[in-house]
Amino acid sequence: MANKLVAAFDVGGTSVKAALLDEDLTVVERLREPTARSDDGATTAELVVDQIARLTERMGAVAAAGVVVPGIVDEDAGIARFSANLGWREVPLGALLAQRLPVPVAFGHDVTAGGLAEFRLGAARGFSGAVVIPVGTGIAGALLLDGRPYRAGGQAGEIGHIDVGHELRCGCGAIGCLEAIASASAIARRFRDRTGRAAEGGQQVVDAARAGDADAAVVLKEALEALAKGIHTLVTLLAPEVVVLGGGLFAAGPFVLDPVRERLSSTLTFQRMPELRVAELGDEAGNLGAGLMALELAR
User: Fold this and answer.
1) What is the mean pLDDT of residues 156-166?
2) How far apart are the two ends of the chain, measured CA to CA in Å?
3) What does the pLDDT look like over 68-94, one tens digit per residue?
4) Which stretches does DSSP call E strand in the chain?
5) Number of Cα atoms under 13 Å in the Cβ half of residue 208
6) How far apart are CA 299 and CA 170, in angstroms?
7) Which of 48, 132, 254, 264 has the highest CB neighbour count under 10 A?
8) For residue range 166-198, what is the model confidence (pLDDT) as tens digits?
9) Cβ–Cβ < 8 Å for 252, 210
């Protein structure tokens, strides 16, 4: 079999990360540009076409492409049902890409793709059941059950909207959501509301807590306790062997992971305690996952 090249695209609210990968998932070429937006998704599809042309200028044609986007994504239908970050509702991006590209296109969800990469290549490799949770502006999870992603038409994995029992209103309209207290943006907001001091993100609050800031410590403690409650629900329902936590918040390693582990283990009764790990692939996870999807399609 000739060595295949695939193109991988991680479409975010602010930028598109594109990569040309070989069969070993080694990055051959890389691009990163601001996201080109339109309500119907056509502008984004055109950007992908343009980026493929530039990625392959030196290396030749690709065998397939993988494109992943945030939000509620129905991979089977090829439709981005809802993406707040992109301003999309019911955008048939899979069809838009198929109309414009001469190669097969794997279309999917960014968190699921990143979770697949962690499962095959990163912190969850070697396990049969895993949940991968990147904690960022929001909180979603990739559910890998018996080695396969579970999506339920894009509705599965919305871990950030588990009710963990607080009185804060979430952006979704509900009260008590995990995302409203434990996402990186929520941690920064709650620190600002408590102290009047700005924080650019959750990681800055973690740094302040490590440096002895009492207010930062309280905000972080409440966030990590809420995260443990959310994982408790996952463990009760799915019994994953491993839970992988990612995002900038968990760059602090044991300082944030140990409190989650201790809180979770103290509340479980009959449930199996999963192994807790920090994600290994960082910002590359989405591209690598899109590349894996494309390679499977090419083969």
Assistant:
1) 94
2) 10
3) 999 899 999 999 999 888 889 999 999
4) 5-11, 15-22, 27-34, 64-69, 72-74, 79-83, 88-91, 105-109, 130-134, 142-145, 148-149, 242-246, 275-278
5) 23
6) 42
7) 132
8) 999 998 899 999 999 999 999 999 999 999 999
9) yes
Which amino acid type is present at position 198?
A: A
Region class of 147: left (phi > 0), else alpha (psi between -120 and 50), else beta = left
CA 242 – CA 34 distance, rounded (Å): 35
pLDDT tier for residue 137 given thresholds of 50, 70 and 90: confident
pLDDT by residue (tens digit) across 246-269? 998 999 999 999 999 999 999 999
Q: β-strand 72-74 against 275-278: which pairing, if any? A: unpaired
The DSSP element (H or E) to which 90 belongs, if any, is: strand 88-91
pLDDT at 1: 38
Helix (H) or strand (E) run with residue 134 in it: strand 130-134
The answer to whether residues 65 and 9 touch, using CB atoms and an 8 Å cutoff, is yes
The burial class, CB within 10 Å (0-12 / 13-18 / 19+), for 148 is exposed
In single-letter form, the type of residue at position 55 comes to L
* Residue 279 token pair: 């994600």
Closest to 192 in 3D by CA, of 180, 179, 201: 201
Structure-derived torsion over alpha carbons of residues 193, 256, 127, 183, reported in degrees to the nearest 10: 10
Mean pLDDT of 149-154: 89
